[in-house]
Every structure is written in C-alpha cells, then in structure tokens.
Amino acid sequence: MKQEKAVVVFSGGQDSTTCLLWALTQYEEVYTVTFDYGQRHIEEIKCAEEIAKELNVPFKVLDMQLINQLSPNALTRSDIAVTEGADGELPSTFVPGRNHLFLSFAAVYAQSIGARHIITGVCESDFSGYPDCRDVFVKALNVSINLAMDSSLEFHTPLMWLDKAETWKLADELGALDFVREKTLTCYEGVRGDGCGECPSCVLRSRGLTTYLAEKQGSETK
What we know:
It is a single chain. The chain is of the alpha/beta class. 45% of the residues lie in helices and 11% in strands. β2, α2 and β3 form a beta-alpha-beta unit. It is globular and about 55 Å long.
C-alpha cells in the first residue's frame, strides 16, 4: 500500500486527524476531503484546513449544504440543544445520511484522482449510537459503491474497534499525542483543543485521554 493513493474523510477532529496521521504512514500519497454541510461551527472547516496545511497534504472542501436543508439537528441548527439520546433514541447530534453521503462523494473524488483507498474515522466500540458508524454499514456501502461505479475502492476504518483511550494510544504511537490534543476540534461548541469540557463529545474525549494517560503512567512505573 505504500505506493498507492488514499483519501481521508477529514473533519479536523481527534478521530479523523488520527486517521490522517495513520494514513501518512501507510500510503505514498494522501489527500483529504472535507464537507461543508452547514454545520454548526464553520471553525471545523478552518481547523481541518490548517491541520492539512501543517501536515502538507492536499485539502479539498465539497459543498454539501443540501444536508442542512434536509436534516434539522443539533449539528446543523444552533437553536437545537445538544442532548444525548434517552430511552433508545438517537442523540440530537445525529445527522441522518451524513456518513452515507460523505463516503459516497469521497469515493467519487477518490476515483477522479486515481486513489483506491478511502479512510474514515468511524467507530463502533465507543460511539454515540449512530447507525452509520457501524462496521456492517461501512462494508455494505463499500460493496454497493464498487458495484455502482465498477470500481475496486477499499474503505478502511482504523478506529472501528478502538475505544477513545485506545485512539489516544494510537496517536501517541504515531508520535502525535500533543499534536492531536492541541490542534484538533472535537467539541460541539466549537472550542479547539480540550474543548468546552461539558458537551458529550468533550466528555468522551476527556475520559479517554484520562484513562490512557493513567494506563501509560502505570505501565511506565512497573
């Protein structure tokens, strides 16, 4: 794979940045694609662009404003509160069809530049219950897209079975723990780095970091 091209679905958050850093160790040429879907914070796109520039990888933004028109939710409307799902309901931050569309358009972009690999940071083992983060969905879509485009694209999900502590560990193994912690934007309130510390995304991120650092310190003192 070292001699092949790859496209990273990139938001500038902890997960996609870790995936980008991972991809840079696996492929000769790595590209990023970001989506403007009228998200709550335009800062997300700015953050992604700055990280791509710092890592010296091509950066492309695709206009997906149609998602904003079709799907009112906490990530596309500032007047909708960020809440976790209760009684089996999905969180208010779930954007129906988002990953389906993102991966489909990333596939079209990848084929246009001669890339065969598409990397996304979705995760099933430590997530908010989003159905489009599941392994079965990604694999099914991969098959469907290859049939639709008569292609041999491969979707890769390096974080699929990692919890947040293990994702931090991967970033550390890639020599980028501080980079990911300081440069990325995961917060639903649009605060970079460690974020607001209160939204569900920040709580998950912080809990994972605390767990990993404690485990790392414990192993070092043995």
